[in-house]
C-alpha cells in the first residue's frame, strides 16, 4: 500500500473520530433533552416496532399452542384466500368509500373552521366556541355512540321528531343501508373537526401581519386576503397533514363502526377493522386476518409514497 493511501485512510479515520467526539459532546451538552425523548423512543420501539415481527404469521398456519417458531409455513396461501373470499371485496369497497367520504368532507372541515375562528375578534366568544368544538374529541365513541343512538332514535330521537313535524316519515338512520355511511361520516366530522383546527390555527398565527397590512393598503378584500395570503401560507401544513391522512386512508376507525353498526348494515358498514375483529378474534383465524392487515398497511404505504412524490413535484416539501 502506498504511503499516500495510508495517509488518506488515516485522515479519514481521524475525521471519523472527530465527528464521533463532536456527536458525543452534543449528546453530553443536551443530555436532558435526549432524556426527555427517551420515553417516546421506548414507546415506539416497544409498541410499534417490536410487534411488527408478528406479521410473519401472515405467511404461516399459525397455532397459539405451537407459537411462531413451531407453526407451519404456508407462504402466500392466506393472501390468495383473501382475494378469493366473496365478502372481502365488499369489505374493501366499504372501507375505501367511507375513507374517501371522510377525506372529501372531513379534511377541509378543520381548515374552514380555523379560518372562521381566526376572524372572531371577541376573545370570550372565540374561546367559548373553541371549547365547544374541541369537547367531542375528548369523549370516547362509547359515549358519543350512546348520544347518537338517542338523538337518531326513530321513536324518541330529536332528529326524527323534527322530521315528523315537517310531515315526513321517521328515518331509521342506524339500521338503514342508505343512511348509515352518512351517519358515520357526519359523526366523525363532528368529533374531530375542532381538534384538527388547532394545527391550522397555529399556522395562521404564524403568518406575518405585515402581509395583511399591505393587502389592506392595496385595497384587497377579506376574500382576496384569504385566497392570496392565508391559504398559500398554510399550504405546507395542509400538504403534510394530507399526506399523513393518506397513510391512514384505510383506517376507518374500529371503535366508531363497532359501536354504531349492526347486522342490518353489514353490507355497507362492515370494514376491514371490524372484519378482522370478527374473523380474527372471534373465529381465531389469526394468520388470515394478519394477512388482511398487512395488505392494508402496504396500500397505505404506497399511497403515501406516491402522494409525497407528487407533492415534491408541485414544489412542496413533503414528509421526507
Question: What would you note in describing this structure?
Answer:
- The protein has 320 residues and is mainly α.
- It folds into two domains: 3-58, no CATH class; 76-313, MetI-like fold, CATH 1.10.3720.
- It has 16 helices and two strands.
- It has a two-stranded antiparallel ribbon with strand order 1-2.
- Helix 15 (272-282) runs antiparallel to helix 16 (286-313).
- The radius of gyration is 26 Å and the shape is globular.
- It starts with a helix and ends in a 7-residue tail after the last helix.
- The model is unreliable at 1-10 (pLDDT under 50).
- Belongs to the binding-protein-dependent transport system permease family.
- The chain crosses the membrane at residues 31-50, 96-120, 132-152, 227-246, 286-307.
- One of its GO terms (cellular component) is plasma membrane.
List the helices and strands and how they pair.
Elements: H1 3-29, H2 31-49, E1 60-61, H3 67-70, E2 72-73, H4 77-84, H5 88-106, H6 108-118, H7 123-134, H8 141-151, H9 158-165, H10 180-205, H11 209-217, H12 222-247, H13 254-260, H14 266-269, H15 272-282, H16 286-313
Antiparallel strand pairs: 1-2
Amino acid at each position: 500500500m502506498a504511503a499516500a493511501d495510508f495517509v488518506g485512510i488515516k485522515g479519514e479515520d481521524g475525521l471519523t473520530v472527530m465527528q464521533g467526539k463532536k456527536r458525543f459532546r452534543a449528546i453530553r451538552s443536551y443530555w436532558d433533552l435526549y432524556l426527555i425523548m427517551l420515553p417516546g423512543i421506548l414507546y415506539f420501539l416497544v409498541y410499534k416496532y417490536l410487534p411488527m415481527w408478528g406479521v410473519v404469521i401472515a405467511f404461516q398456519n399459525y397455532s397459539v399452542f405451537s407459537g411462531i417458531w413451531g407453526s407451519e409455513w404456508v407462504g402466500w396461501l392466506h393472501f390468495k384466500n383473501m382475494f378469493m373470499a366473496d365478502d372481502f371485496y365488499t369489505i374493501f369497497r366499504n372501507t375505501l368509500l367511507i375513507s374517501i367520504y371522510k377525506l372529501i368532507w372531513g379534511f377541509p372541515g378543520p381548515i374552514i373552521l380555523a379560518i372562521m375562528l381566526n376572524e372572531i375578534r371577541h376573545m370570550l366568544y372565540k374561546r367559548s366556541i373553541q371549547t365547544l368544538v374541541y369537547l367531542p374529541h375528548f369523549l370516547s365513541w362509547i359515549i358519543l355512540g350512546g348520544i347518537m343512538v338517542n338523538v337518531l332514535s326513530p321513536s324518541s330521537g330529536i332528529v326524527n321528531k323534527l322530521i315528523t313535524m315537517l310531515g315526513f316519515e321517521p328515518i331509521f338512520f342506524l339500521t338503514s343501508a342508505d343512511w348509515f355511511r352518512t351517519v358515520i361520516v357526519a359523526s366523525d366530522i363532528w368529533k374531530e373537526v375542532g381538534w384538527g383546527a388547532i394545527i391550522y390555527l397555529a399556522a395562521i398565527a404564524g403568518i406575518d401581519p405585515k402581509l395583511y397590512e399591505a393587502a389592506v393598503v392595496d385595497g384587497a378584500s377579506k376574500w382576496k386576503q384569504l385566497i392570496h395570503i392565508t391559504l398559500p401560507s398554510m399550504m405546507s401544513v395542509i400538504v403534510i397533514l394530507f399526506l399523513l391522512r393518506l397513510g391512514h386512508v384505510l383506517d376507518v376507525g374500529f371503535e366508531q363502526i363497532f359501536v354504531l353498526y349492526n347486522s342490518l348494515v353489514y353490507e355497507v358498514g362492515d370494514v376491514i377493522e371490524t372484519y378482522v375483529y370478527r374473523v380474527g378474534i372471534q373465529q381465531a383465524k389469526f394468520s388470515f386476518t394478519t394477512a388482511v392487515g398487512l395488505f392494508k398497511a402496504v396500500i397505505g404505504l404506497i399511497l403515501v409514497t406516491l402522494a409525497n412524490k407528487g407533492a415534491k413535484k408541485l414544489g412542496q416539501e413533503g414528509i421526507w
